[in-house]
């Protein structure tokens, strides 16, 4: 189970109504009984994408273009823009992806934000090769030898088991 408390859309909507009425984040937090950090994130999201984005939180994932990611990360890292301002300017619904983009941008520059190919790379599996008759026969011999060794071991174990039970009966 997660330790995060999830709040419904009505609670988030009530927080925005109180914000629009002129209340601060701290006041809203105490009025609706939600932690300060959660309310602060809701208000940042509300300011950046509006009430629709806030009420749809957790229902769908937003997909952002490479250009948006680079522009937002560059604005915060290089130009000193605050995260809420960048969220509002670029229409980013959450601080989490923005933080991830900033980290990647700092570590690897704009190229680190390029989309990565998904799935298994083409041609990664071994290509089926044409086997010669000699190779097929060699493989068959190995298989039969393994089968033969297995049967011999099985017969030996059964014989050993019979001899143990015979010794017990004679005692």
Automatic annotation (TrEMBL):
It comes from the Bacteria. Residues 104-138 are annotated as: Disordered. SUPFAM superfamilies: TrpR-like (SSF48295). Residues 17-56, 71-122 form the Insertion element IS150 protein InsJ-like helix-turn-helix domain. Gene3D superfamilies: Winged helix-like DNA-binding domain superfamily/Winged helix DNA-binding domain. Belongs to the IS150/IS1296 orfA family. This is Transposase and inactivated derivatives. It comes from Parafannyhessea umbonata. The lineage of its organism: Bacteria, Bacillati, Actinomycetota, Coriobacteriia, Coriobacteriales.
